[in-house]
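INTERNAL AUDIT FORM
Audit reference: QA-55
Scope: verify that the stored structure record matches its stored sequence.
Auditor: D.O.
Record contents follow.
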Amino acid sequence: MNKIAQSVCLWFAPQRIRDEGDTPDYRFSLANERTFLAWIRTALALIGGGFAVDQFLPELAWGVRAGLALGLLAAGVLCALRAVNHWVRCERAMRRGEDLPVSRFPTLLGIVVAVVAVAMVVVVLFGWEGR
């Protein structure tokens, strides 16, 4: 089984993580869980923002509204999936005594949110009608 498939399997059977290495200090596992929950809150906020753009800005040109909403929704979905993956990877690394995994995802998420925010600034400055 390849590494990706193995990691995804652990999403649904986290008890199997205990088969690897030694139990880390519980404070580290709890900190990992709090980080996971922060990512989930971020995902929920992005998804909520996507729905808000779609539902509360009906005067906005459809293409602009749909693009902004879909950008936020996609970022929320990716953020939620990445939260689970990052939690599993960190838990495994702690049990194995390895360095915690690095990720480019925060950079990617930040860029997506910044692009959507800039698009919203343009919409606010130039009006809702997309003139």
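Auditor finding: record pair retrieved intact. The longest helix spans residues 62-96.
Action required: none
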